[in-house]
Amino acid sequence: MKTHSTLILLLFTAYLLNAQKTKTVKINDTLVVKATLQYSDDFSNNLSNWQAQHEIAGGLVEINNGKMEITANRGCTVWFTKYLQAPVLIEYDAVMINEGGPLDRVSDLNCFFMATDPNDAQSKFINTGALNGSLGAYNKLKLYYVGQGGRKNTTTRFRRYPGTGERPMLPQHDLKDKKYLLTGNTVNHVKIIVYKNHIQYYRNNQLIFNFYDPEPLTFGYFGFRTTINHMTTDNFKVYKLSKIKQ
C-alpha cells in the first residue's frame, strides 16, 4: 500500500513539473499558441548564462539574494548567451531600485531582442570588444529594442534596428503617458512575444507594443539594457512557441 501511494505521489509530482513547463499563450482574439519552456534562470547559482558589457569601468553585475543585480554607472548591456530562434516568448521580473543610493534612478528598463550582427556570419558579436556598452555601439545590429521609462522616465519607446546604423521609430511607438512609465521598488513582469509577424511587449499583463512586422527578425540574442541605474532581474524564462494542434 505504501509503495502504491509513493508511486501515485511521484506520478503527480512529475505531472506538476511537466505542467509548469508548458502553457498556452493568447496573442490575439483568434490566435492562441502553446509555450514550452526552453531555458530558465532564477539566479540561484551563477551568471554563467550571461555576459555583461559596460561603457566605463566600475559597473557591476552580480547575484544578490537570488536575483541578478545590475549597478550601471553608465551604459550597460547584459546578454543572455543562448542563441534564440523564434517563435519565442521571453519573460522576466525586474525591479528599479529606488532607495537613495548613488545610482538609484527610476529609469531605463530597456532590452534588446532578436539581435544579430549582419556583418558577423557566426553571430559571435556579443563576445567581441567592439560592443563596449555605449548605446551607439549597437546601432549596426539588427534587433528589436524597447526602452521603457527612458529619458529620465518620461517616455517608453519601441524601435526596429535594420542593421544599417539607423534607429527608426514610428510616432505611435513613442509613449509618454504615465501608465507606460516606471515606478520604483515595484515588480515589472515583462513578457515579450515574437511569433511569425507578431511582435509584442507586455508589462504586468498590459500590452504596450503590438507591432506587425512584414519582415520579422526571427533569430538572435536577448539582452538587458540600461544606463546609470540600479536594478534587479529574476525569474528569467524562454519558451518555444508552437501552433496548437486541432
Write the layout of secondary structure elements.
Elements lengths: L1 H20 E7 L2 E11 L8 E5 L5 E5 L2 E19 L2 E9 L12 E8 L25 E8 H4 L1 E8 L11 E2 L11 E9 L2 E6 L2 E7 L6 E25 L3
Antiparallel strand pairs: 1-2, 2-14, 3-5, 4-5, 5-14, 6-11, 6-14, 7-8, 7-14, 8-9, 9-10, 11-12, 12-13
Short description:
The protein is mainly beta. The protein contains two helices and 14 strands.
Structure description:
- This protein is mainly beta and 246 residues long.
- The chain has a single domain (24-243), classed as Jelly Rolls.
- 10% of the residues lie in helices and 52% in strands.
- The protein is built from two helices and 14 strands; from the N terminus they run αββββββββαββββββ.
- Strands 1, 2, 3, 4, 5, 6, 7, 8, 9, 10, 11, 12, 13 and 14 form a 14-stranded antiparallel beta sheet that branches.
- β1 (22-28) and β2 form a beta hairpin.
- The protein is globular and about 55 Å long.
- Residues 6-19 have low confidence and may be disordered.
Number of strands: 14
Number of helices: 2
CATH class: Mainly Beta
CATH homologous superfamily assignment: Exo-inulinase, domain 1
What number is the mean pLDDT? 91
CATH architecture: Sandwich
